[in-house]
Specification:
Strand 13 and strand 14 (217-226) form a beta hairpin. It is built from 20 helices and 35 strands. The protein is globular. The strands form nine sheets. Strands 17, 21, 22, 23, 24, 25, 26, 27 and 30 form a nine-stranded mixed β-sheet that branches. A five-stranded mixed β-sheet has the order 2-1-7-4-5, sandwiched between helices. A five-stranded mixed β-sheet has the order 32-31-33-34-35, sandwiched between helices. By secondary structure, the chain is α+β, with helices and mostly antiparallel strands. The protein binds one RNA strand of 75 nucleotides through strand 13, strand 14, helix 8, strand 23 and strand 27.
Length: 641
Amino acid sequence: MVTVTLPDGSSRQVAAGTTVLELARSIGAGLAKATLGARLDGAAEIVDLRRPLDADCSIEIVTANSEAGLEVIRHSASHVMADAICQLWPEARLSIGPATAEGFYYDIDLGHKISDDELGAIEQKMAEIIAADSPFERCAIDREASLQRFRAAGEIYKAELIEGFDPNDEISVYRHGNGAFEDLCRGPHVPSTGYIKAFKLLKVAGAYWRGDETRPMLQRIYGTAFNSKKELQEHLERIEEAKRRDHRKLGKELELFIFDETAPATPFFLPKGAFIYNALVDFMREKYRVYGYDEVITPQILDLELWKRSGHWDKYRDNMYFTHFDKADFGVKPMNCPTHCLIFRSKGRSYRDLPLRIADFGRLHRYERSGVTAGLTRVRSFCQDDGHIFCRDDQIGDEIARVIRLLREVYQTFGFPDVRVYFSTRPEMSVGTDEVWEKAEAGLQRALEDNGLDYTVNPGDGAFYGPKIDFVVLDALRREWQLGTVQLDFNMPARFELHYTNAQDGRSQPVMIHRAILGSLERFIGIAVEHFAGNFPLWLAPVQVRVLNISEAQLDHANRVVERLKAEGYRVETDFGNGRIGGKIREARNSRVPYIAVIGDREVEDGTLNLRRRGGEELGAKTVDEFCALLREEVSSRSML
RNA sequence: GCUGCUGUGGCUCAGGGGUAGAGCACGUCCUUGGUAAGGACGGGGUCGCGGGUUCAAAUCCCGCCAGCAGCUCCA
């Protein structure tokens, strides 16, 4: 007998060798039916429901309704898809096919290029396999024998996978369709193909074998699966909603920005987009006054010597633009930090001057490989809400805490309450000694812990001059976006030989904290467009009010109202054309103006505006004074209404 | 950069070896209409760029450029 402990703390005695499924059945028939596998002793991996329980353990039964259960379903769906593809194209060679956060994919090597139009045929084949409801069978196999077999079958990817496995681990394959389909796999899988209730194939794209761009490119077929048709439908609708909110589409429709072939990956901000850009800068400047930053303006193009000193020539050259004139070479700045070091060095500094916080909205240029740019979220020219803090060693903790406070305050304003934190350590391409890096990494880690932040470590993902903390927010569609960053740097100050006079009248080297809150304004605007679906809060909306007339009879009055609103500082647009009110309302709504004000004879009569909010909410008649008071309050509170 | 796909009026897209189409937008006129599209008429495109095949290329082929979905890389 073995003792199994259930999540509620109770325990049961079962005969050794009892399977997970049998245990579930002993608890209840309903549970047994829903069981897909189990988590033993809190392990990350899930075991098969046919796994015998040989020793005492704690067990958590995994059902389809849990995240882990969904993963099992998706993983099984990827096998079914692979089976379908192999049936359609028997020459296909399989590599890997895992479940992902949103669905699953399978990377296959196939001479025939699968087009999106062929996904339907694959889905149909999958539906047949699912309808057959054939059991998934697990089978442990011998390492050497299986290597031979996979090699003989030309399954070079599977063979390579086996070669990489720990020789002590058991190797297994899963079969379904009465052995017609077999795939190297650790499992677990659903009991039979019929458990896959709702799936959909989404797209096909290229992916390098093992993510290595020097290795062959395989075809990756993406799909998703859910526990029910309803959940699948909801997921597909989320995808549609994301498409509707795409900032590239809305940016064009709302006339925020354009792109042109003559400047790849570099936006042209139209008046409305430029307004938002400037409003964000103004917003940060307001915060800077409170948080003690001094703004500077620094050169765009600097002598190559500077970039050699900073380390950019060595470690960042591939991302930089260069130019040549007056018999000298120059680099276009990809970062502001070196110029800020020059400012620090421009006069003698005392420990009393520290921390020195410098902010810069300078334009940066970074060469990005052609395939990686996208809309505003990845561009070649951008502006960060950049800042560098020069401080003493003993001020690091306070300064980072301050940045985190500022960051939270800013994210709150935009309705990004959930922030995920990533801690990135020394990358391969880096400057400085091990000792300095250890100190910097320890410093940041302490700051994370002192500020009570839960974080995930990204080993080797730091900047070339120092480790960093990245702040990732979740938008209205629960998608992750990286915004802020805090980087601790002992290297740049050393390379620029920065120093200040300490209290003992000696020389000390300052520490440099690189930080950005919004990240790049370009990316932030792109994210904000999608987050708000173009419905910017009043303070950020390029146009706040659109005034419509019913007929020409109200023109004089309407013009006076518009002048009054403009005089009060509001951004007002008019539609005094000869269309009908229904059409004007429709256009105003599509333009996502926060307030629509209608003026007809009635409003002229009693000196009011007939108002409705962007969402459709009718506010009825209000005097211009009342309306201004309402606007004033909504703007000053930066309401998210 | 790699794989696949795409490029036709301002926008969304149809067409496809024989002198370019729709809807929306735009302009003019009619209409002065009370909360999601009133009507009529009209202007506007060397079909991304360059080469090739052909009697003839927007259409087929090649190259380049740009964009899209991913991969790899990043704010």
